[in-house]
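Structure ticket #2291
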Amino acid sequence: MVREGIYDVGNFTAGDRGFAAIKRSIREREQAAKVALMQETVARAWNVPIGELRSPTRRRAPVAQARQVAMYLTHVIYGFSLSAVGRHFGRDRTTAAHACRLVEDRRDDENFDMLLDRLEHALRRAGERGRQQ
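Resolution: structure written out below.
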C-alpha cells in the first residue's frame, strides 16, 4: 500500500527531475559528512584548530599542510574528483591537484608515510562501520 502525502516517494521514477534532485542532495550531504570527518581527523592529527583548517584564507605552514593532507586523503580514500575536493574545501581543482602532488611527494619520508597510512586505515574503518549501521 502506497501512502500519499509529503513522505510519499512511490511516485518518483528514475527519470523524474525531482528524483534526480533528491539523489543529488543526498550525495552532496554524504560527501559533506565525509569531508567534515576528514577535516576533524586531520586537524587532530596535526594539532591545528579545525576553524583554521576550514578557513578560506591562507594560513601558516602547519595549517596549510594539514589542509593539503585532508584534500589528498579525501581524493584517495573517498574517490572524490579533484573538482569536488576543491569545492568542499573552498578551493579550485588546481589547488586540490597541487595539494595531492605535494603530499604524494612527501610520502617518500618514512615517518610521514606511516602517519598517512594510519590515518587512511582509521578513516577506512570508520567508513566501513558507518555502512554497517
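Closing remark: Residues 71 and 85 are 6 Å apart (CA to CA).
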